[in-house]
């Protein structure tokens, strides 16, 4: 057997004659290269087993397979397995070496998020690990993804606990770098809902709009799971004649009549006004809340 060979097969995406391909590269560091390679391409089935999709014997130190939408589809995890042997002695083979699994399709990075109701923006990257082909020079040379959010796992379903900076993103074609051939970013923020509703889970989904060709037509990227950590929120009160309790717990009374600014945020457009009327008559100087306006 051919021992001591380290082929280290690696899968990278590449555009070949305007069509998306995967390339398996392997480089034996040996003073006497074996000269022949058997390359087996496989994909991971839904049952978690590998299914062979292509096999070839070649003298080259690389092998291509096309993402045709039939044998290999977007959403597949692809492997290449390489065995080396010499031209005249095919029975003397090296041990087969596997590449790492290559996910071919659109995915989010990171694949899950844990954020808090603190107003902080978190960057989420949407990327394609396969090249986007350009059949012409028109504006259709891109993949547009519709983004949506959904509340999951709550006992009482409600609106999602997250907000996105955009509802759509465009993946524009460009040269592949590593396993990214096109990328766009969107920010995710936890909704500050002033409710003590515990930690909630939402998910972000992406769906290609008007996909072109067989390759993109049936592709649904994996969702992103977003866990929102509930934070206690401050409360202030104005009640009865009126007693006021501020956010930091101070208590006092206000007997004035008129319209007043109860609270205002310096960091966002949030403001509350209250109107107080005379409700004590001649016997006492007492005011009562009779109206409120908020934005």
Automatic annotation (TrEMBL):
The keyword Signal applies. Keywords: Disulfide bond, Signal. Residues 234-295 form the VWFD domain. GO terms for cellular component: cell surface; extracellular region. Signal peptide: none annotated. The keyword Cytoplasm does not apply. It holds the Pfam family Ig_VWDE. GO terms for molecular function: signaling receptor binding. This is VWDE protein.
